[in-house]
Amino acid sequence: MTSENKATPRDFDVVIVGSGLAGLTAALLLAGSHRVAVVTKRSLSDGSSGWAQGGIAAVMAEDDSFQSHVDDTLVAGAGLSDATATRFVVEHAPESVAWLRSLGVPFSLENGHLHLTREGGHSARRIVHVTDATGAAVQQTLIEHVRRTPNIAVFEQHMLVDLIRAGKLGVQPERCLGLYALDEATDEVVTFRARHTILATGGAGKVYLYTTNPDTATGDGIAAAWRAGCRVTNMEFIQFHPTCLYHPHVKNFLITEAVRGEGGRLLLPDGTRFMPNHDPRAELAPRDVVARAIDFEMKKRGLDCVHLDISHQPPEFVKEHFPNIHARCLELGIDITREPIPVVPAAHYTCGGVHTDLSGRTDLAGLHAIGETAYTGLHGANRLASNSLVECMVFARSATADILATPMPEPPAVPPWDDSRVTDADEAVVISHNWDELRRFMWDYVGIVRTNKRLDRAAHRIELLQQEIQEFYSAFHVTRDLLELRNLVTVADLIVRSAQSRHESRGLHFSRDYPQLAAASQPTTLPGQDG
Fold it and tell me: Which residues are catalytic?
């Protein structure tokens, strides 16, 4: 890329960062009237959405109701879910499923009707799915539509560096004017100028050593929005999925909630079932309860893992409902029709995020946040299974409706990225060492069970890392590894500060120093860096 091209911004009506379900849904809904750019740091298919196995929660059966889905969500959210946001999502869920069906998503059917399964925390069968690979099927369908939609330009291998704010340029009124992104093909930071910007960058599971998330989940949108002055809320509530495959040759392979929904039992190595001792709902308890129970049993008995057993079901049933899990485990020498699956908890979902309203608007005009990047109020202190994909679509639809109804102001000129005073890094090993240290102490000190002392230790190490990373960022050309580490340390700081401010145990946040539930509780909101 020539310096002249680098200085010329890429102009769009809307720039969307992220290519998961939320981002691609927004792109398709806007493309009829707006010039849209989808900026994604890997390929279109590399986000978390494609990894979702379970399905999409929506009231589709005659014996189910919106109120029942709302009640289940509020119970799982442990008193911190916003009732208005919850009802908004639940009531718009069926139309989102209908839209996906109209695009050709091949949902599993039974006797010509949608097959509905049940997962932990749900009082009815309401999970629409594509066998055990719902996210992959939905993602592939949307990608095919995006690829052939003329008004959508896709920029793969482009990593968000920072948002562009009018105030930083001395221009009023304050609003988001687009963003800077590292083009990895040219190793140049390029400018995207936009009338509207949407963050759909997913969560931050990679801040932990063990996670079900893909390598892209580094909290990029959350960190960038916070740096731009946006509030973040409920960052202490990190959902640990109870059942990630435990195997030395595989990382990040999730064993879907639906295995327990279809009768899977959690067992100790000697075959003893333990969940009934922890909760009357046993294996169908919400994820936070199940994850803590597994963590308790593993620490009490010095176990590397526990076991999830579905082998009491007929082999044909197991293969039909969980073909991908069956095939993957079989490759590793585990026949789940005959033997249990070794599992451990792993960081899975970021319930908090950039504070938004029901239209996905953040505190910065011209900037929306949707999907796992956002805090909408739906999840509260714990996300109910299969509420994430539907949240992506419902808020993608509301955010795009807001954009379509908003006049598009002509953005002012924005300067190119200035890297004239930096050099190439001479010791990139510092980044990899800091990355490893961060993820290990977050796992040890800010995991499923927390204490004041552990949080203080984490905060001290984060402060040291922030100083080193800022020095590195100021002195050297940016790389994807450096940008991701910078974002992860920012997110780690937000998680720890939020956890330190919550003096109770609620939902996904469990503290040995404050084991009781507080009589009154509110979401934890931190002001943005420039807020």
Answer: 287
